[in-house]
From TrEMBL, chain A:
GO terms for cellular component: endoplasmic reticulum; Golgi apparatus; plasma membrane. Residues 1-30 are annotated as: Disordered. Coiled coil: none annotated. It comes from Eutrema salsugineum (Saltwater cress). It is found in: Membrane. This is ALA-interacting subunit. Residues 1-21 have a biased composition (Low complexity). Its main location: membrane. The chain crosses the membrane at residues 49-71, 307-329.
From TrEMBL, chain B:
Gene3D superfamilies: Calcium-transporting ATPase, cytoplasmic domain N (3.40.1110.10), Calcium-transporting ATPase, cytoplasmic transduction domain A (2.70.150.10), HAD superfamily/HAD-like (3.40.50.1000). It comes from Eutrema salsugineum. GO terms for biological process: phospholipid translocation; protein localization involved in auxin polar transport. The chain crosses the membrane at residues 82-100, 106-123, 299-321, 351-376, 925-946, 961-981, 1011-1030, 1050-1073, 1080-1098, 1118-1138. Involved in transport of phospholipids. It catalyses: ATP + H2O + phospholipidSide 1 = ADP + phosphate + phospholipidSide 2. This is Phospholipid-transporting ATPase. It is a multi-pass membrane protein. Belongs to the cation transport ATPase (P-type) (TC 3.A.3) family. Type IV subfamily. The keyword Transmembrane helix applies. ATP binds at residues 424-426, 546, 593, 616, 650, 731-733, 845, 851, 874-875. The active site is at residue 424.
Length: 349, 1198
């Protein structure tokens, strides 16, 4: 684009000389593309379009909302917060001391089944105010170490849980170190309810992220013990609790799968839970909850989605109505030329 | 003069000092002074003195970069942009632990963006380089030591070489012409590559060198000016055989011009390589930036402030939270973070420091607020837009084979915001192809044609009174005669039965008529070109006026057919015998035309051995030079000139005088002395010398040539003023001519109130006669002041009572002298204010400098966008001063085009350039930038909201690579498509409803409200996206198999929502869907999923959280898709509702126009009783309505 007399002249010297200038005329070639006349769809917001768009959205959204709500209604969910109750009353003044102290921390809870629950019933633990998404925390792991024994020594990201006396910790890092270690034993009518702890992790995690030849080493051997210990004889790919835990949560309130109950629970059943209250959420006042839940095709119990759909659908319906009324009450003729007058100051977007 | 001298003292000081040595001791005082230090040893480049001078060779390089400096230099260019520096710093910091994401993901987009720009630069430069190589290796014949000519490459030429250039070859360097194949040493040159002029120019060698044999032993020394960029000046002397000979541009052959009609020439190389005039001229046009881009910079700063504010907020929170991780008694609160054993970035004991480092991290994290690809995208878009402008067939001019050219792509959108057009007249509004239509000889007016202006005036008057003008039938009969008479001749539109076909000899004043036409046939610089087959003669003239004169005299029997260095030969009809005779006039001197002299003269010796001075010039300078006895017909001639001017004609006064031998000899000596001088004031001295002989002239008469209005000019001006663009005409013409042209091109309309500001009042003239300059200036100043005040009060009065919707319109006409005072610092404000209140402004008699000054005044005074349009060298200042310069590639050469930003072939194309391309480009760029900010804020703020849920630790919500691909891959192509292709309405409608253009003039689409509106929309969207997503994707299972949402699923879902939202937002905000838009918008979304699949299938060590995320986790979950739909629709809802409301209540111009196109149903007229029947389509009725409104407005003024 810059004008460069000298060089442009040099260019024309070759071609321009041929006196067939007429033949290669500079007339731009015609094509719909270059003349900017491509066939195009030019949507405009006529009242009809506005109203029908709103109507269509509401017509789609309201049924979707209803369906989601129904799906959510099908789900039976029992939530039991136990972090406070599982501390003996005398120790409640200093929960942190209690949880950090030794001794048996067993605790019994009773849950009532209010509605029939069809198997599989998922057992979750829910933590609140726990920042698994803290940058320091998330980064403190070694994916290659988890994957293969070859990379046992790739622990640079794992500080301060990287090694014990020069020996690398497997699995290293804060995430693994802080593994959740409350345990639940469930029984119904004094018969033990089997909780299947297999198949709670993502398949891809088991197969591709955690190696089956990688065994825990030096785990929880440091000066400060975090959470659960691991059986050094079981390869990481089989340690599903760890795999679930290491798939970090996005938000400070999260649930993680503990196991599955593969029998139906009837309405009115009473479930006794014997739990070991080991995990310290007290020092950062995090709640701990035990959750038993069935699922629908849409997942767990969640009314919000349905309500949100209904709300948005409703708003759209209302807007459709409002616009209809506006167009009826105060119609503006399409293409009214009076709007093309001078010195008008049309504003906004 | 001292001041002028001082100018030379600059860098050349050192230079001249060095080469001063060899010539020291010379007696020639002017040579060797600063600025005039070049010494050329002809045919002897190897002499020690020449070697000592060490002038550079003829090698040229026009490239911006060399292989060695390409990388550093182009990088430097890139990082002059603030945003790019920011990204560079970010890239460096990303290698430190501060970085919230991995270094490659930061570097990749930056490298991509920088790389793309560098490749573009590199390719452009490579092209230039190839041209250079081609030019440097061309062959030329050079005179060798062995006494013959041998071939060599251009780049090997040295100063002092003698070269031989053959017909149709380019000159390899600036040469001094020594001799040519013609005996008298003349040659013809085409300078198209220099100034675009296609006519041939005559050059002639000095007589002493024109002998061909002398070349062999030619040894001379040329002393001349230093290299400079003035194409039309050259000062130097040739020292040859002990004598000094003056050199002028007449002997210079410039590099890159071409030898024509001459078999070969010999020349001495004077300037080589970069010293040549053409290379000295090759500077880039001044780079202008559009208003939108300047505003965009401000927005970038706003974004930077937002960035800093939110980073700071985040850091404060982070600091507080981090501090709490370790309670005062040493207990760990969030023990899982091990705050007891941490790095400085998270250390609770030094929380302030940690917060500071976090601030740096946050600056990087929220960097997505700054659109990294914005500049690149805009550049790409603008280049493509320029291609569309260049390719537009509607702006292609068949006759001259010239399409429109966007010479810079920086200003496309500025074209859509033009508020004031400042236009030249000659060659811009008119064709600049002159036709000889009338003349006045010895007080008698000849020529019966009607000019366009006359016809236009008559038509306008005819609207009010029936045609019954006296000489009306006269002109009709002429037309009939003309139709039956011989073929029309270009440049000649003269018919008068008293003159044509040799009838003039029967006129009573035949002798004067003869003299008159002889002057026309002799006093010029045209070159005849005799066609060898048909014997027809055509002329190569420097200006179209001159061509018209020569043609006219040929048609009337004074055929100029040969020019040699010393002679001009005519075929003439002898007025006594009526026979054709050949007469040869010896040409003694040509006193050339210049804009300050405003006249040209030749001194010839006629066959009767009489010395004659023949002179033609502007009336303002000629009448005062008349002899007492030469004023016989002065009154009549003046009267005729006035009438011609009113008819829009250009007039020249024709005079002659006999010079006696003695006077001539004395004068010649003085003149030659001035000419041989080599110094800066040479021109002034020559002018003074010429002045001495151009006096006591005898008036013969005057000529009138018509400069026809270009096709479509009135329509175009009408459309532009309908679009609300103000048009100022700055012309060198007389007031009457300008006013009448104004009427002819509908710039001034009947019913417009004319405000005339002039100094032709009796008191000022009286003062002028007294000659007291101070008093005149003072009186003039006061007079102008008064007139300006009066004008103001008129316009105020008009606006005062204009509650009735049709404000009066005003036209301001001001002449050059008054303009000088009006542009005075003290008055310029008032002048501008008055001018703004007028719809059209005409400045007459304005000089090039005044044109530029007026342009600057309008530009800086109003702050609005100005566009200057012109075609000649005198418009260059104006074009460069204005926000946009548009050059007309017309007859007056290419200088205006070279200085312009856009070049078009005809004035009427301006309409399409502005109303269609300007409007589109403005709209596209404005929306594009707004959208860019929208999409980056939408994205960037989701990151910020997420931080609130991640204790501000700096963990981004998404995978690193999603983020780095956001700007480059998933959202950029649709924006570019928007910037290149979007149209609110079609070109046809743009032209039909010029009011649409006001969107740009009022800057509606890029107003702060709108920009902030879009930003707000972005922030609202981000809030809807983030909070809806995290609320729906709370802790519960999101799949039948009981799995819960984790970091990767939330990230993918939210990111998908963002991609969908911004792309669909694009879809609902554009008005024009071709397959390209569909392809890009849906393609971008599709590409995101494709990316997810591909990236997700890479090993987990690389893909980390994205590993199989779509295939395994979020893809099969209906919950994720439902969330996506909900979030996307909700995020689009605010904008959509806003638009619906806006269209309902405050529609914009284009909304209405689009609707009008759509509503085809007939519509009943309800407004007026006299309305045409209801079957008319809306558009027609709308137009009618407008017309009527206009008419009623008009009526009320009259």
């Amino acid at each position: 684009m810059s004008s460069n007399t000298a060089s442009s002249s040099a260019a024309t010297a070759g071609s321009g000389d041929s006196s067939a200038a007429r033949k290669n005329s500079k007339r731009p070639k015609y094509s719909k593309f270059t003349q900017q006349e491509l066939p195009a769809c030019k949507p405009i917001l006529t009242p009809g379009w506005v109203i029908s768009t709103f109507l269509i959205v509401s017509v789609i959204f309201i049924p979707l909302g209803v369906i989601s709500l129904f799906a959510s209604q099908d789900v039976v969910e029992i939530v039991d917060r136990y972090d406070n109750d599982c501390i003996p009353a005398p120790a409640r003044t200093n929960k942190v001391a209690y949880i950090q102290g030794g001794g048996d921390k067993a605790c019994n809870r009773t849950l009532r089944v209010t509605k029939r629950m069809k198997q599989p019933i998922y057992v979750y633990y829910q933590l609140e105010n726990f920042y698994q998404n803290h940058r320091r925390y998330v980064k403190s792991r070694s994916d290659s170490q988890l994957r293969s024994p070859k990379y046992e020594n790739q622990i640079s990201a794992c500080k301060p849980e990287d090694d014990v006396g020069g020996q690398p910790i497997v699995p290293c890092g804060l995430v693994a170190w802080s593994l959740f270690n409350d345990t639940y034993t469930l029984s119904r009518n004094n018969t033990r309810l089997a909780v299947n702890k297999k198949g709670i992790a993502w398949k891809s995690d088991k197969e591709h992220k955690f190696g089956n030849r990688v065994f825990p080493k030096n785990f929880q051997k440091g000066n400060l013990t975090g959470g659960a210990s691991l059986d050094p004889d079981i390869p990481l790919s089989e340690q599903e609790d760890l795999i679930v835990w290491m798939r970090t949560a996005a938000l400070p309130t999260f649930r993680k799968l503990y196991g599955k109950i593969e029998t139906d629970l009837e309405m009115g059943d009473t479930i006794h839970v014997t739990l070991q209250n080991n995990y310290n959420t007290y020092s950062f006042s995090g709640k701990k909850k035990l959750v038993l839940s069935t699922t629908s095709w849409l997942g767990g119990k969640n009314d919000f989605l349905g309500i949100a759909y209904l709300t948005v659908g409703g708003i759209c319906f209302f807007l459709a109505l409002a616009f209809t009324i506006m167009y009826l009450v105060k119609p503006r003729r399409l293409g009214d030329p009076s709007y093309l007058s001078w010195n008008r100051n049309p504003g906004g977007r | 003069m001292a001041g002028e001298r001082r100018k030379g003292v600059r860098l050349s000081k050192l230079y001249s000092f060095k080469c001063f040595k060899p010539s020291s001791g010379e007696d020639h005082s002017h040579i060797g002074s600063r600025g005039y230090s070049r010494v050329v040893f002809c045919n002897d480049p190897d002499t020690p003195e020449a070697l000592e001078l060490n002038y550079k060779g003829n090698y040229v390089s026009t490239t911006k970069y060399t292989a060695a400096n390409f990388i550093p230099k182009s990088l430097f260019e890139q990082f002059r942009r603030v945003a790019n520096i920011y990204f560079l710093v970010v890239a460096f910091v990303s290698f430190s632990p501060l970085a919230p994401y991995t270094a490659p993901s930061v570097l990749a987009p930056l490298l991509f963006v920088i790389g793309a720009t560098m490749v573009k630069e590199g390719v452009e430069d490579w092209r230039r380089r190839k041209q250079d190589i081609e030019a440097n290796n061309r062959k030329v014949q050079v005179f060798g030591k062995n006494g013959t000519f041998g071939e060599t490459k251009w780049k090997n030429l040295r100063v002092g070489d003698i070269v031989k250039v053959h017909k149709d070859d380019y000159f390899p360097a600036d040469l001094l012409l020594l001799s040519s194949s013609y005996e008298d040493g003349i040659c013809y040159v085409e300078t198209m590559n220099l100034d675009g002029e296609t006519n041939l120019k005559l050059k002639h060698a000095l007589e002493i060198t024109s002998d061909e044999e002398s070349i062999k032993n030619f040894r001379g020394v040329i002393k001349c000016e230093d290299p400079n960029e003035h194409l039309y000046s050259f000062v130097g002397t040739l020292q040859f055989q002990g004598k000094q000979y003056p050199l002028s541009p007449q002997q210079m052959l410039l590099r890159d011009s071409k030898l024509k009609n001459t078999d070969y020439i010999h020349g001495v190389v004077v300037f080589t390589g970069h010293d040549t005039k053409v290379m000295q001229n090759a500077t880039d046009p001044p780079s202008k930036r559009s208003k939108i881009e300047k505003k965009m910079d401000k927005i970038i700063y706003i974004l930077f402030s937002i960035l800093i504010v939110i980073s700071f907020t985040g850091s404060v929170f982070f600091g507080i939270i981090t501090r709490r991780d370790l309670s005062d008694d040493g207990k760990l609160t969030r023990w899982y973070l091990r705050p007891d054993e941490t790095t400085v970035f998270y250390e609770p004991q030094r929380a302030v420091l940690a917060a500071f480092f976090h601030f740096l991290t946050a600056l990087m994290l929220y960097g997505y607020l700054i659109p990294i690809s914005l500049y690149v995208s805009i550049e790409v878009v603008k280049v493509l837009q320029s291609i569309f402008i260049n390719q537009d067939q509607e702006m292609y001019h068949e006759e001259t084979d010239r399409p429109a050219r966007a010479r810079t792509s920086n200003l496309n959108e500025e074209l859509g915001q033009v508020d004031t057009i400042l236009s030249d007249k000659t060659g811009t509004l008119t064709c600049n192809s002159m036709e000889f239509v009338k003349c006045s000889i010895a007080g008698t007016a000849y020529g019966r044609g009607m000019t366009e202006v006359e016809m236009a005036l008559r038509k306008q008057k005819g609207m009010m009174r029936p045609q019954e003008e006296a000489d009306n039938d006269d002109s009709l009969s002429i037309k009939e005669i003309k139709a039956s008479s011989t073929k029309s001749v270009k440049g000649f539109n003269f018919w008068d039965e008293r003159i044509v076909d040799g009838e003039w000899i029967n006129q009573p004043n035949a002798e004067l008529i003869q003299k008159f036409f002889r002057v026309l046939a002799i006093c010029h610089t045209a070159v005849p070109d005799v066609n060898s087959d048909t014997r027809e003669i055509t002329y190569e003239a420097e200006s179209p006026d001159e061509a018209a004169f020569v043609i006219a005299s040929r048609e009337l029997g004074f055929e100029f057919f040969e020019r040699s260095q010393t002679n001009i030969s005519l075929h003439e009809i002898d007025h006594m015998t009526g026979e054709k005779v050949d007469r040869v006039y010896e040409l003694l001197h040509v006193l050339e035309f210049s804009s300050s002299r405003k006249r040209m003269s030749v001194i010839v010796r006629n066959p009767e051995n009489q010395l004659l001075l023949l002179s033609k010039g502007a009336d303002s300078v000629m009448f005062e030079r008349l002899a007492k006895h030469g004023r016989q017909n002065e009154r009549e001639t003046k009267e005729h000139i006035k009438r011609y001017a009113e008819a829009g004609l250009r007039t020249l006064v024709i005079t002659y005088r006999e010079v006696d031998e003695d006077e001539y000899r004395i004068w010649e000596e003085e003149f030659l002395k001035a000419k041989t001088l080599v110094s800066e004031d040479r021109d002034a001295l020559i002018d003074a010398a010429a002045d001495n002989i151009e006096k006591d002239l005898i008036l013969l008469g005057s000529t009138a040539v018509e400069d026809k209005l270009q096709k479509g000019v009135p329509d175009c001006i009408d459309k532009l003023s309908q679009a609300g663009v103000k048009i100022w005409v700055l012309t060198g013409d007389k007031t009457e001519t300008a006013i009448n042209i104004g009427y002819a091109c509908s710039l001034l309309r009947e019913g417009m109130k004319k405000i005339l500001i002039t100094l032709d009042s009796p008191d000022v003239e009286a003062l002028e006669k007294q000659g007291d300059k101070d008093a005149v200036a003072k009186a003039s100043f006061q007079s102008i002041k008064k007139q300006l005040r009066e004008g103001m009060s008129q316009t105020f009065a008009a606006t005062g009572n204009s509650a009735n919707e049709n404000p009066e319109t005003f036209g301001l006409v001001i002449d050059g002298k008054s303009l000088t005072f009006a542009l005075d610092k003290k008055l310029e404000k008032e002048f501008l204010e008055l001018a703004i209140r007028c719809n059209s402004v005409i400045c007459c008699r304005s000089s090039p400098k005044q044109k530029a000054l007026v342009t600057r005044l309008v530009k800086s005074g109003t702050g609005r966008t100005t566009l200057a349009i012109g075609d000649g060298a005198n418009d260059v200042g104006m074009l460069q001063e204005a926000d946009i310069g548009v050059g007309i590639s017309g007859a007056e050469g290419m200088q205006a085009v070279m200085a312009s930003d856009f070049a078009i072939a005809q004035f009427r194309f301006l309409e399409r350039l502005l109303l269609v391309h300007g409007h589109w480009c403005y709209r596209r760029i404005a929306i594009m930038i707004c959208y860019f900010f929208y999409k980056n804020l939408t994205f960037g703020f989701t990151l910020f909201w997420y931080e609130a849920y991640a204790s501000f630790s700096g963990k981004p919500a998404y995978n690193d690579w999603y983020m780095s691909c956001y700007n480059v891959f998933f959202t950029s192509l649709p924006v570019i498509a928007l910037g290149v292709f979007d149209q609110d309405v079609s070109a046809r409608l743009c032209l039909k409803y010029p009011i649409l253009y006001q969107e740009g003039v009022q800057n509606i689409l890029f107003s702060w409200e709108r920009i902030l509106g879009w930003m707000l929309n972005g922030i609202i969207s981000s809030m809807i996206i983030f909070f809806l997503t995290i609320k729906t994707m709370a802790a519960q299972a999101f799949q039948k198999d009981g799995q819960v949402v984790d970091y990767s699923v939330l990230g993918v879902t939210m990111y998908s929502s963002v991609v969908w939202t911004v792309n669909c937002q694009m879809a609902i905000s554009i008005n024009y869907f071709t397959w390209i838009q569909h392809c890009f918008i849906w393609g971008s979304i599709g590409f995101w999923y494709l990316f997810l699949v591909v990236y997700g299938s890479l090993p987990p060590t690389f893909s980390t959280t994205a590993f199989q995320v779509l295939v395994e986790t979020s893809g099969p979950s209906p919950f994720c898709w439902l969330t996506l739909v909900l979030v996307m629709v909700s995020a689009l809802l605010p904008y959509f509702s806003y638009r619906a409301f806006q269209i309902k209540f405050r529609p914009m111009y284009h909304d209405i126009i689009v609707e009008q196109r759509r509503t085809e149903r007939p519509e009943t007229a309800t407004r007026t009783t006299s309305a045409v029947s209801g079957e008319l389509p809306v558009q027609v009725e709308f137009t009618l309505h407008h017309l009527k409104a206009n008419l009623s407005r008009r009526d009320s003024w009259n």
